[in-house]
Amino acid sequence: MKSNKKKSKSTNKNVILTVSIVLVFILGISIYFLNNYVVSSQIKNQNTDTTINNAQIGIEKGDLAPDFTLKDVNGKTVTLSKLKGKKVILNFWATTCPYCKIEMPELNKFYQNNKNDVVLLAIDIGEDKSTVENYLAGKGYSFDVLLDSDAKVAMDYKVQFIPMSFFIDKDGIIRAISNGAMTYDEVDQYFKTISQ
Burial, 154: exposed, middle or buried (Cβ in 10 Å; 0-12, 13-18, 19+)? Predict the structure, then answer.
């Protein structure tokens, strides 16, 4: 009887310890993102004629999008800089995000109607491959889903809230940024900024 009580107490302590570690980890990531949020103090050049020659690498409109290499859920490697000459939408998301779940079908519908004119990269933040695959199963999404398991790319792009999307033109320049879930029409409006 005493042995069972000791095991039960030990199991409860292990559960509490595990939950505490997970909460501290989540809190730590949240604090990291908040501390690394940079509000630009200088006025950015809003000129739409910005070219790759005078653009600096950054995450604001008019900046050259930071390069990255990630694997998709099928193990294929995707490098952003190798997509120069194509219009790209980067969409940061996670399976636990309710707004991402609302937005995904809209993105897929837009992609289906424009797949010859755009590359859509849905970048999952901080989750393992099996979690993402289980979420995607049976949904029929046809765009590329990339795994940012260590959240490094999300940190480089200073993603604090998801979903968050970057619209990148053929020269690799960020032309629009969306914070929050988009409808089909909103995706289409943002897309126009990289279709001129």
Answer: buried
DSSP 118-159: -EEEEEEES--HHHHHHHHTTT---SEEEEETT-HHHHHTT-
Instruction: Give pLDDT tens digits for 83-102.
Output: 999 999 999 999 999 999 99
Cα dihedral 91, 196, 82, 108 sign: positive
> DSSP assignment, residue 161?
S
Burial per residue of 31-53, b for 16 or more beta-carbon CB atoms within 10 angstroms, e otherwise: eebeeeeeeeeeeeeeeeebeee
Q: pLDDT of 24-73, one tens digit each?
A: 455 455 544 444 443 332 223 333 344 455 789 999 999 999 999 999 99
Instruction: Give the N- to C-terminal CA distance of the chain in Å, as an integer.
Output: 76
29 alpha-carbon distance from chain centroid: 15
Helix (H) or strand (E) holding 187: helix 184-192
Global pTM? 0.73
The verdict on whether omega for the bond into residue 163 sits within 30 degrees of 0, i.e. cis, is yes
